[in-house]
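Standup, Tuesday
Yesterday: got the pipeline producing structure tokens again.
Today: sanity-check two examples.
Blockers: none.

Example 1:
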Amino acid sequence: MNPFYLIPHTPEAYFCDRAKETEDILSFLDNGSNVTLISPRRYGKTGLIYHVFDRLSARKNKPELFYVDIYATASVDDFIAVFAESIARVLKKESLIKSFLKFLGRIRPVVSQDPFSGEAKYSFTLDTDAERRYSLKLLLDYLEQRPAKVVVAIDEFQQIREYAGMSMEALLRTPAAKEEMKRYSHGITDFRLRLYWEKFKCIKICFPSVEEQREIADYIDKKCAEIDALIAKKETFLAELEAYKKSLIYEYVTGKKEVPQP
């Protein structure tokens, strides 16, 4: 019998290491900060997310936890559907799900049942980027008005690079950026918030160090030079082929060469 768990969600008693990472993530979440986990594949990012969720679930005032796995998505529409499904999965109660669908209003999705898992599957008919932005905003607004604190984990986030059309990363970062600005602002109501320089300058933006920027620039220059060399070589080859084609046509048309008989 294998004593090791081979699934991402390892029970608390069997979860080892990542103690500092766990405490760091919990601290960031408690302070309302966004967190990004970056590592090579198969290093246990998903397991760490579940572990943090377990720790949060054990609290007296536990937040609502939404886990969104977008690995199987191929478009913005897929992302929105999977996001909606993750929300409905947490709500569970039929009355809450009905309230959720009512909140979505005019973009109400078609709901079906997964034949294998039995869970609800959502599909949206979104024809324009404006409709997609509006749909995602509705989902975020719904989470914003939940009575408990909300934590959303989006797993396999690199998948958004495969989405065609609108910039999904920009779409997702917009609400996050607004929240970061709001966190440092002061005012008695949302529409009277003020963000002063002393607070604005405290907002951290992720930039690589100067050394890393130089490394990135050098690498790009090197690769661009290699590509330019390949293009030049290809263009020379094509020019030679074009000259050979013209020479071949001229020789057969002028009779310098005869067409071979079958």
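Example 2:
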Amino acid sequence: MQKPMSANPLPLWTCPDCGVAVTNPRHVRCEACIAGDPAHSPEISKRRGAAIAARKRALSEWDKATPGVVYDPELFRRAILPRLATVKLMDIAEAAGCCKASASDIRRGKWTPHVSIRAALAGLAGLEFEACQFSCWSGRLAAENWRPVPLIQVLCFSVHF
């Protein structure tokens, strides 16, 4: 449970843009600079929220469609990650349905992707996975209508070199 904010919160640091005190521990910039940033407009925030919600729904659907599936959580780090070092970031981003920055985090091992997209990444890495008998949603969103688009059959747990 979160503590309620006090009436006069103490400044944590100063905004790098204007130097005003930042009182929200979850923000880097002050409220005025955040409000003035076009990337935080209500329309963009709504689209970003819709994209995040769609991805969470897709992962939830995948988890429900694959109850009891057992996989080796270290498989990605052992077999796939080392082979992604030479794969272009845009190819990783496209396969994972994420932005280029997240693709960089995946390739550096900073972020481990959900098991539902590991087969696509393994394909990029030159590995072949056994396909399971179901389809799932990639969570990738079409730019115009922000709906999930289907992905080929995914998920496999034995890697063939």
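Quick observation on example 2: The radius of gyration is 20 Å. Residues 131-161 have pLDDT under 50 and may be disordered.
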